[in-house]
Design a protein that fits this description.
Chain A is an all-beta fold. Chain A is built from no helices and 11 strands. In chain A, strands 2, 4, 5, 6, 9, 10 and 11 form a 7-stranded mixed β-sheet that branches. Chain A is globular, with a radius of gyration of 14 Å. The model of chain A has no long low-confidence stretch (mean pLDDT about 90). By secondary structure, chain B is mainly β. Chain B is about 0% helix and about 55% strand. Chain B contains no helices and 11 strands. In chain B, a hairpin with a 5-residue loop joins β6 and β7. The relative contact order of chain B is 0.33. The mean pLDDT of chain B is about 90. Classes of the chains: A mainly beta (about 120), B mainly beta (about 110). Chains A and B meet through β5, β9 and β10 of A and β5 of B.
Chain lengths: ~120, ~110
């Protein structure tokens, strides 16, 4: 049971290049998330997917697209990278705890992205 | 809107001393509250969570947090710091009406001095 895995671990891009960050979970969780972490700003939600086939915008979606490929996989795409997208990206997943109960999120190890 | 505020972006303690990391929340409904820990170059790991079952919540690695409604606080404590506790700690609140969304604080970096 690997939990939440992310690839790549580290990536350097030039401005304007595109790339896809991959995330997979083996916990049979329904919901999956993409966050970015910047110094002094905590984690900010980019996109999330409550179930296979659905995606919704979070707090900072501009410049990103996502695909919920199946229940296990949730990818984040940068179509035209900008220096402002230099950050650490975390994927997470969660499962319902019961009606009205907050879901506990489990995080991957992160992808460090540098855009030059 | 719900939010959390973590007082002190950096906290330094001596090994063996009390650890106190502060978190205040804003919520118009009874909140769900979480503490996560992030070790260097790793993802976030759940330390503990408050779900209204008990106001004093015990977590992993000897940490605990007490929910105080009157003070809108959920401070994290550990009686005796260990060098391995050096990490960044995040407080989070469950988003109102969305049980699958969390709002994170800006984090507190804990340093433990020998």
């Amino acid at each position: 049971n690997a939990g939440v895995t992310q690839t790549p671990k580290f990536q350097v891009l030039k401005t304007g290049q595109s790339m896809t960050l991959q995330c997979a979970q083996d916990m049979n969780h329904n919901s999956m998330y993409w966050y970015r972490q910047d110094p002094g700003m905590g984690l900010r939600l980019i996109y999330y997917s409550a179930s296979e086939g659905t995606t919704d915008k979070g707090e900072v979606p501009n410049g990103y697209n996502v695909s919920r490929l199946n229940k296990r996989e949730f990818s984040l795409r940068l179509e035209s990278a900008a220096p402002s997208q230099t950050s650490v990206y975390f994927c997470a997943s969660s499962v319902p705890q019961g009606k009205g109960y907050q879901e506990t999120q489990y995080f991957g190890p992160g992808t460090r992205l540098l855009v030059l | 809107a719900q939010s959390v505020t973590q007082l002190g972006s950096h906290v330094s303690v001596s090994e063996g001393a009390l650890v106190l990391l502060r978190c205040n929340y804003s919520s118009s409904v009874p909140p769900y509250l979480f503490w996560y820990v992030q070790y260097p170059n790793q993802g976030l790991q759940l330390l503990l969570k408050y779900t209204s079952a008990a106001t004093l919540v015990k977590g992993i690695n000897g940490f605990e947090a007490e929910f105080k409604k009157s003070e809108t606080s959920f401070h994290l404590t550990k009686p005796s710091a260990h060098m391995s506790d050096a990490a960044e700690y995040f407080c989070a609140v469950g988003a109102r009406g969305a049980t699958n969304k969390l709002i994170f604080g800006t984090g507190t970096l804990l340093a433990v001095q020998p």
